[in-house]
Design goal:
With about 230 residues, the chain is an alpha/beta fold. It contains six helices and eight strands.
């Protein structure tokens, strides 16, 4: 999505390694966070916009990384990435459909290795391939776009997504999980990349606090005035 996005906050995990380093995606523990890999070397194909029982006009798109991340007590292993948890709160609260961005080539499972790959992708302005086909955005009026903060920005694969679909005329709602970077540069990057879209208030949750943030996230999402 972030086609042309300038990159937002740092991956949480990566930032913890060095103060000047970016943070990885799901490793969203600090400002130098690096992106975190999806489980396994070969990523499963992403779910095609999972539709809710009633036709929804809202789609929650997200990239999330499990595996080794950076938490309050140091590195930890996650079965489900922080951003995926937050995306689930939003979708449930709004009865929205979901689409998970899954890399065609999985990121390294290790936090440090993932941070290194994420940093290189940012420097190269890379567009990592997404597994499977991109969803049909046509039926949706509102599209939430979520990700962890890697090196202060969105993972480059998010830019692959936004450049691969037509979001002109859509209402965009950014959200992030992080290790201290908040929203990072994500909202600004998305707005720069999607000048023909309308943006609503973005929201960020610390990765280590996401399990207890359901009420906070639901209050924010339902308070946006989305029908």
């Amino acid at each position: 999505m972030a086609g042309g996005l300038v990159g937002a906050s740092v991956l949480a995990a990566c930032s913890s390694r060095n103060a000047a380093e970016p943070e990885p995606a799901e490793t969203e523990a600090q400002e130098a966070e690096a992106p975190q890999p999806e489980e396994g070397a070969a990523q499963p194909e992403p779910e095609q916009a999972e539709e809710s029982p009633a036709a929804s006009k809202t789609l929650v798109v997200f990239y999330s990384r499990a595996d080794e991340n950076y938490g309050d007590g140091g590195k930890e292993w996650l079965e489900v990435g922080h951003t995926k948890v937050m995306a689930g709160y939003i979708a449930e609260a709004l009865g929205a459909d979901t689409y998970e961005i899954v890399p065609a080539t999985a990121y390294p499972e290790g936090y440090d290795d993932c941070c290194d790959v994420a940093g290189q992708e940012l420097r190269d302005d890379a567009r990592p391939a997404i597994a499977g086909e991109l969803p049909d955005i046509t039926p949706y009026d509102v599209v939430f776009i979520g990700c962890p903060i890697w090196w202060g920005n969105e993972p480059m694969i998010v830019r692959t997504f936004i450049e691969g679909v037509n979001l002109a005329g859509k209402t965009i709602v950014p959200f992030t999980t992080h290790g201290g970077s908040g929203l990072g540069a994500v909202p600004g990057n998305l707005q720069a990349a999607l000048p023909d879209s309308t943006f609503l208030e973005a929201h960020a949750v610390a990765g280590t606090a996401v399990d207890g943030a359901r009420d906070e996230v639901v209050a924010w999402a339902t308070g946006l005035g989305i029908a």
